[in-house]
TrEMBL record:
InterPro entries: Aldolase_TIM, Methyltransferase_A, RlmN_N, RNA_MTrfase_RlmN, rRNA_lsu_MTrfase_RlmN/Cfr, rSAM, rSAM_sf
Pfam family, one: Radical_SAM
Species of the source: Siculibacillus lacustris
Sequence positions that bind [4Fe-4S] cluster: 150, 154, 157
Main EC class the enzyme belongs to: transferase
Domain Radical SAM core: 136-376
Name this polypeptide is given: Dual-specificity RNA methyltransferase RlmN
One GO BP annotation of this record: rRNA base methylation
Keyword Flavoprotein recorded: no
Length: 416
């Protein structure tokens, strides 16, 4: 899911501390199958097909899993508790799987953005996606993409104007997390990267599926990837620190909750169907009442596991006091948080951002109803949110993007 980030301020042009042009890696082995992104069952099947004896399968899966996800091994040679012969055999058949890292941008405030290039896989040419990392005191959040482009054409969203190219594979979704951890030095034996990072503990503590694309339109790959994120012997992220954001693919909402147990965010943005039909066109198929019914059915919902509702603030469109009151009314009975997102106009967009006074007035109404976090800083980080940060591969990292993500992740994992 992506929605526009808040407008960049005057400091934007100074925010980058560095842009690294990374060498293109792994070229030429695109056709070799990767072991990254396979579920445990599929990894076992793959090893079985490669001739691993049935009685050794469980052990081999465990070993590989440990090296791939706990240790972050980038090749078979480093997997020291696997025999040399087997390592050589595996290396002849498979790759561990790393994307090409095209650029790495590091903001002075610690935010990092990576541009990854993946093989075309039928798309005609290689594809590129962005992954963003936001460090904070005590945690680090990674915003991960699920598709290249998006087919859902939300009218406020820059990604919605881009052609849908293809779904990412589970391998490509998982690789965003693995390479981010690698770049940060977040694996055991990794050397911690320089710059502003959480002082203690793990560097990637939270993952949000809020980059480019609608995750539920790429269900199987996203489900598999999130299960790998949460596997206790691997990347080992708490399910309460993994969030999937959807524009409202209603039939799959309870299903993804049942299959993965992750947290849910909804790109709501309007409280009336006639308006949401325009802002989030999937609403024509699954109107607000159905969407909220699916939210109520989300497995494991409680005050400690609330759904985040994202609401982009569009001047004169959805930002009235009446809209705010209706939002509160609609969400009654649903354990929920609301994230308000100042709109960041992009070239050709027909919307403007609501005034700050309007945003504050709106926030006041939802705050009084107990749905939003208090405003913690003058920057308004607690009333910003959600998707749309990852607008264009060539764009520079903006302070506004950081603010948007910070606020959105402020509600991700707080209840742990
Ligand atoms: S589903 Fe998300 S990424 Fe796709 S157009 Fe809508 S807001 Fe943008």
């Amino acid at each position: 899911m992506t929605v526009p980030a808040p407008a960049a301020n005057a400091a934007t042009s100074d925010v980058l501390a560095g842009i690294v042009k990374a060498p293109l890696a792994v070229a030429g082995r695109d056709a070799v199958p990767s072991l990254l992104g396979l579920t445990r069952d599929r990894l076992a099947d793959t090893l079985r097909e490669a001739g691993i004896e049935e009685r050794h399968l469980r052990m081999r899966v465990g070993q590989l899993w440990h090296w791939l996800y706990h240790r972050g091994a980038a090749d078979f040679a480093s997997m020291s508790n696997i025999s040399k012969d087997l390592r050589a055999d595996l290396a002849g058949r498979f790759v561990v799987g790393r994307p090409e890292l095209v650029t790495e941008q590091i903001s002075v405030d610690g935010t990092r953005k990576w541009l990854f290039r993946f093989p075309s896989r039928g798309a005609g040419r290689p594809v590129e996606v962005e992954t963003v990392y936001i460090p904070e005191e005590g945690r680090g959040t990674l915003c991960v993409s699920s598709q290249v482009g998006c087919s859902l054409t939300c009218s406020f969203c820059h990604t919605g104007t881009q052609t849908m190219v293809r779904n990412l594979t589970a391998e490509e979704i998982v690789a965003q997390v693995v390479v981010a951890r690698e770049r940060l030095g977040d694996f055991p034996q990794g050397e911690k990267a320089e710059g502003r990072l959480p002082a203690e503990g793990r560097l990637v503590t939270n993952v949000v599926m809020m980059g480019m694309g609608e995750p539920l339109m790429n269900y199987d790959a996203v489900r598999d990837a999130m299960q790998i994120f949460a596997d206790g012997d691997g990347l080992s992220l708490s399910r309460r620190r993994i969030t999937l954001s959807t524009s409202g693919v209603v039939p799959l909402i309870p299903k993804i909750g049942g299959d993965t147990g992750v947290m849910l965010a909804i790109s709501l943005h309007a409280v009336r169907d006639d308006l949401r039909d325009v802002l989030v066109p999937i609403n024509r198929k699954y109107p607000i009442a159905q969407l909220l019914e699916a939210c109520r059915a989300y497995p494991g919902l409680s005050n400690a596991r609330r759904i985040t509702f994202e609401y982009v603030m569009l001047k004169g469109v959805n930002d009235s006091a009446q809209d705010a009151r209706e939002l509160v009314r609609l969400l009654r009975g649903i354990p929920a948080k609301i994230n308000l997102i100042p709109f960041n106009p992009w070239p050709g967009s027909i919307y403007e951002c609501s005034s700050w006074d309007r945003i504050e007035a709106f926030a006041e109404i939802v705050n009084r109803a107990g749905y939003a976090s208090p405003i913690r800083t003058p920057r308004g980080r607690d009333i910003l949110a959600a998707c749309g940060q990852l607008k264009s591969a060539s764009e520079r990292l903006k302070i506004g993007e950081r603010l948007a993500l910070e606020a959105m992740i402020g509600s991700n994992g707080d209840d742990d």
